[in-house]
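Example A, followed by Example B.
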Amino acid sequence: MTIMIRPATAPDCVAVAEIYKYYVDHTVITFDYDAPTAADWKIKRADLHAARLPFLVAEDENGTVVGFAYVGQYRVKRAYDWTVENTIYLSPDHTGKGYGKTLLRALLDAVAATSVRRVISVIADSAGTGSVALHAKAGFEEVGRLKRVGYKHGIWVDCILMQFDLDDSDAPPT
């Protein structure tokens, strides 16, 4: 397996939209009912870039975008300025092959270069997904569960909360 991780560009948003649409239409791991368009993803990418937050894509050996990951603001209140929420998705044909591990590690490395101290992952508890295991292997710790908070495709879904501390210092943020 050859994989290249790099910052997402505006043209990558077409592939990002296609990957995400699969999960919107066929799973409960995202609570979106309608898939954002490539234009929507371009706006999100530009907003994250302006906020100096990473949005990465994974390419396979053919140069095809097979996954993406980014971090965004966790909550809007100022006290959360040092905490972000991560998102990671892979093309369904590229799960279980190590792409997720490489992409998530690259994302955490990119976040470590910012002032962020905590990364939160909110993971829909759905059978057959490897997201909890992927995050645990990357060093995330399960810190809670929200019960029956999402309803999609005729079922109620729990969310598992996981946290990764980039800096466990209690020193004030800078």
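Example B, a separate protein, is given below in the same form.
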Amino acid sequence: MSDDFLLDTDDLQRRMDGAIANLRTEFASLRTGRASGSMLEPVMVDAYGSMTPVNQVGTVNVPEPRMVTINVWDKALVGKVEKAIRESGLGINPQLNGTIIMLPIPELNEERRRELTKVAGSYAENGRVSIRNVRRDGMDQIKKAKADGMSEDDQKLWEDEVQEMTNTMIKAIDDLLETKQAEIMQV
């Protein structure tokens, strides 16, 4: 039985890559003082009875470096989109102009920059926790195989492989965080 065990490292890798991709999406939502359509990705609007991303209820444009506009397709949803943006925690005050919502991006002050680096740090920690959860799942599979008759040498080999994957992904998260924090603090 011990020779039959094969840990699905591709599945573990896919799940860890998913955690990194999620972190990149969260980082994209953090403002760095420049307008970006991606900063609205986490904003969900209660449209037609379900939570819908902003980019599916209107056209998101960046007409100038410090302005994002949303041209809402359904006039009935303008108020809901405005409310979703106000409650999203982005720190942006929407301005209405018919069915167009304008989002002027204010200059970041030092205090807000420090706040955003802390938020980035918490996003990174959530990513690390996700990676560690995947690692735990892999280790649990190895322990189960050990109970089913896997040799200690094979167990050590698989555990080392899972730990190496984990270390690589945690380092990638740390590198992403360092880059994002430098980007936020750049004046």
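On Example B: The helical segments are 9-29, 78-86, 110-147, 152-185.
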